[in-house]
Amino acid sequence: MATTVQGAPGTRERFSQWLNAHRKWLFAAPAMIFTALLIAFPIGWTLYLSLTDAKGSVRSPKGFVGIENYLSILSDLNRFWPAVLRTGAFTAGALALELALGMMIALLLWRPFRGQRWARTAILLPFVATPVAVAMMWRLIFEPNIGFANRFLSWFGIPAQPWLSDPTTTLPTLVLVDVWEFTPMVALILLAGLTTISEDVEEAARIDGANAWQRFWSITLPLLKPVVLVAVLLRAIDALKTFDLLYVTKGQGGGSFHEAETLNIFVYDRTFKYNDYGLASAALIIFFLLILVIMWFLTFRRRGAKL
Amino acid sequence: MTTTLPTRSRAPLAPRKKPARTKVYPVVRGILIVLVILVFVLPLAWMVMASFKTNVDINDTSKSFIFDPVLSNYTNVFGNANYGQFVFNSFWVALWATGLSLLLGVPAAFAMSRFNMQKSALTVLLARIIPGISLLVPWYYVFANLGLVGGYGVLILSHMFVLIPISVYIMMSFFDSMPLELEEAALVDGLTPIGAFLRILLPLSVPGIATAGILSFIFSWNNFMFALVLSGANTKTLPVAVFDFVSYASIDWGAIMAATVVMTLPIVVIAVIGQKYIVSGLTAGATKG
Hints:
The complex is a heterodimer. By secondary structure, chain A is mainly alpha-helical.
């Protein structure tokens, strides 16, 4: 092979030796430089913009205004703080329901049964389906007059609900859609964790007389803890950043009463509707810090957390 | 296990309890499984049914499940507003973004896995945490100034931002589970380290690459926010094109549902065929703890 056939090593040979010696960085650098640029540049730029009064056209001149944007964002009780609360409520609500339901479904599908593969494929569909399609589909289903949701309720004699058309029911309805979309993902992650638990441990506990609940609570769940954490992290990251569902169902600004306006929607609105780049950038930096803090809280117990 | 169980004394009861519950439990479990599947599949079935209904039938509560299927929604969608172009755009962007992400991501994941580059890996994976919109604002600002907004290049670039972390994450856990001896054996056989990677490890990691590729394609295909801002009239991808239907004067539910079915179909086909890969990609790293 590459070992010398001729006498002295030529330049080509020396070059290939150099490549092999430095393959660690040769392999890793392109992806790292690409992402680092894509991260460092936007954050630096956002930080810079957040200190200016950039507004209007992207070419218009801008002046340095210091922390003025941050002050006006943090004192914005009409749009910003409600958006923060909604982001938290949406994420916490969706996460709690998805974990509880996902765990139940994972336990239900755990032991082999006929058609297990088909069941898994079926529950795979909600979260691989295009989010825009999912959002459109639920808009039709929740349509107050012609939607299936109210028709379904009427079979049980339950009066029609306003769902997405009333500001007070909008956010809970959207949480419900998120739960429909992503509970299967949580279930499949937990299921993968469950299959690594050896049956012997369970069997030993069963022989020791532990009932199903005790086996779950003191054996299965502790063994599953790392997997649960992965599911929580992945879902928390994505739920905090939810955009498609909210934008497609409620439009810019999260509806006429901003009832679905989370931080992501708020920043998008400020940027692309009002072209208020300076203010939007300040909000973005705060949003970003918030996510980092939450991620830090979720991962700080996990050594070398890989995400 | 160090777990102590409080009900140790009840041990003799266990074998007697077993036959009684085996009769009821499978039935209850079967019913619950069917119920779960229905909950997750029925809304999608509703979408497909609506796409074959006229708008009159969609409004008719008596025609929930029994109706005369029509194809007019589909002919509308494809006749209307060059929908074929949007299908092509989605494929084109997803293919390039997936290919380039794998090209950069696979070797990076290999190096990070072999040389334990935890901190470097974190740089790449940080992109997973950062809100996409934080990328969008500055990039829009710069690309609008350069007059590049609306081209395929910007779209592909923005999608790669999402796909590279996914590829690296999946491939890292794949390479982590590959025995080191493989590479050593190849070196003993006279291959250079890079040769060993290209000729031995890369062919063996095809399942991992398939996993990363399928998931990357799906993520790119489904992406909405980046395409919403960075695409032009001719480079619009499907999610944006479908969303645009809504802004027309009245909501044509039949056409919208037909459009969403067309958009979802490729993903459903991929999901059914590549079920194994999607699940393993999704749970990459999860089971290691």
